[in-house]
Design a protein that fits this description.
The protein is mainly α. The two termini are 12 Å apart. The longest helix has 39 residues. The chain contains 13 helices and no strands.
Length: 315
């Protein structure tokens, strides 16, 4: 019951966030240089033709009125249609979403497993491994994912020909080729994130080892392995879960560049194309989808908090 109340409270608090993000996006997109009506009508269109296109697209209305019409439709599940292709926005986004989710979920999972394993190893070994994790973390923070993606394509796709350089294969079509098409993009997304998670894991584990109750267990003869896996990990997990949530959200932004490098038909590439075309309905819908993913990620982090610490469920 406490978990249900917590979930309901988080979902209700996300409604003002969705409203604020959609309104701000609408205003910012309207300030971007470009005129979709002029693009559709063509450079050589007459004034009458240009005006007719603007009327058809509703661009002759004031900005608050345009947003109100969009909001009313969005509440009923209709995000409009693309100004250029005429395809429903929900269909466009639903077709692209699995590609981006494959990258983001895989990148988060690889980052988490690799980062936690490396952090635990450095916490137990100390010495050189501590410096190595710190150096790797600085490297991960300093290297942009799109630059790393270009390097990986050059080495492993062009020269060695181990993996495809571009494209995406659906898992329903060929699971093996789907996995191969994800390797380079996921590595470029997860390498830096795994280093950050490793540093956070190591620091959290070492900090927990310095707690009084751990010292008491050590004094009573409990083995280091038992202390680490039964008590330290659970107490050190909350900061790591927080970082995992941050990594998931950060990968939402990083996929825009990675999908461009690997020509993967995901949300990132769609947003880039829609921004260049000033396709407001597509941009609005994509931002709404991304905001919902952020809300879902935060909700999962809160649920993990509740499982790890009963005091959170009671709050």
């Amino acid at each position: 019951m406490a978990v249900f109340r917590m979930v309901l409270r988080r979902l209700l608090s996300s409604i003002p966030l969705l409203f604020a993000v959609s309104a701000l996006t609408f205003v910012l997109v309207s300030l971007v240089p470009g005129d979709p009506a002029r693009t559709i009508a063509g450079e050589h269109a007459t004034v009458a033709q240009y005006t007719a296109v603007r009327l058809q697209m509703g661009l002759n209305q004031s900005l608050p009125l345009q947003y109100w019409h969009w909001l009313v439709q969005a509440v009923h599940g209709n995000l409009g249609s693309s100004l250029f292709s005429g395809e429903p926005v929900t269909q466009l986004l639903s077709n692209r979403l699995p590609v981006s989710l494959s990258l983001i979920i895989s990148g988060t999972a690889v980052s988490g497993v690799l980062g936690v394993a490396l952090g635990l190893f450095s916490a137990r070994r100390g010495g050189f491994m501590v410096k190595a994790v710190d150096g790797l973390s600085l490297f991960g923070l300093g290297v942009p994912p799109f630059w790393l993606a270009l390097v990986l394509v050059e080495v492993f796709a062009v020269k060695l020909r181990w993996f495809p350089a571009i494209g995406y294969v659906s898992p329903a079509t060929d699971p093996a080729q789907w996995a191969r098409s994800l390797v380079l993009p996921v590595v470029s997304l997860s390498l830096g994130a795994s280093a950050i998670i490793a540093k956070q894991t190591r620091d959290s584990v070492l900090d927990t080892f310095n707690k009084d109750f751990i010292r008491v267990m050590q004094a009573n003869g409990f083995s280091q392995r038992s202390i680490l896996y039964r008590h330290v990990l659970k107490n050190a997990a909350i900061p790591v879960v927080t970082i995992l949530g941050v990594v998931f959200v950060s990968l939402l932004a990083a996929t825009v560049f990675v999908e461009t490098v690997f020509a993967m038909p995901g949300l990132g590439l769609l947003i880039q194309q829609a921004t260049l075309q000033h396709d407001i309905p597509v941009i609005q819908g994509a931002v709404l989808y991304i905001t919902l993913l952020v809300v879902l990620a935060n909700l999962l982090v809160d649920l993990a908090y509740g499982l790890l610490d009963p005091r959170v469920r009671a709050a």
